[in-house]
Amino acid sequence: MYNMSLPWWAYALMGAGLVIFIAMIAISVRRHHGVKRSLFATPYTLWMIVFTVIPCILVAYYAFTDANGAFTLENFLNFWDSNYAKNQLYASMGEAASAYIMRGTVNVDTLVYSLWMAFLCTVICLLLGYPAALFMADRNMKIGSTIVILFIIPMWMNFLLRTIAWMSLLEDQGLINKLLRWLGFDGVRLMYNSGAVLLGMVYNFLPFMVFPVYTSLSKLDPKLGEAAQDLGCNEWRTFTKVTAPLSLPGVISGITMVFMPSVTTFFIPRILGGGNTMMFGDLIESKFLTEGNWNVGSALSLIMMVLILISLGVLRKFDPEGEGGGIA
Question: Is 159 in the same domain as 269?
């Protein structure tokens, strides 16, 4: 049985951090004889400390310790070899059981699958989102603002409800299969496969690609395009030489906002994949909630955080000024 309670120092750290935080506010107010404008950011700072910094410290603590709190690297060996614990048992039984020792690749394969699905989702969102953003940002289009609202409205609905709603469309007795049968065709299996998972990911994360690109495009000075055309560029060359390069910060921001949640998602594969597909987020959740193994779960989470930081570092090279657009 794994120890699922927080260590004593975690509570002490949270208490000490809160006391220091309050003391710093009091000192600042007294030193400046009133409330400085920067103090209005204190709720956000406190939120970041309690719900970001301290959880990251706890994840690192559990990743490098065993169930008894002793330092170990076996949690990371469990990532490389999903049969590590079982193989250790076989090794202790002598040569007779050595034939059963076999490296498990479930964890590594799940990570590779998750990265591949996130890559496909990001590429599809970019291919669909960029033309949509370009259309919405066109100043000659009178319905551009209306389309923006149409993209925003589904985001007002709960993420879980939006995903579950696809079940009524994709299941065997769903609306799509009923329509196909009504037209005289055989029903098709649309649920519980990678295609359904990818569809759900694209649907949920597409707005996070559209809005940053739209923001970058809407900020472009139209005189730049006019100048390029005056110099002899046709519409395609104007797009490739002026519009696309200047919208790159928004594209990088959109890629970041789509790829990161895609690679860690776990609810969409569970609902639309029906257990036939497992992504890295599902694997981490199962370690924490099903197996109760916080140590291995934390190690997997730490590996994912490192990969995300590396991805952010690479993407940052293309947007060093951090000019990527956000939701307008």
Answer: yes
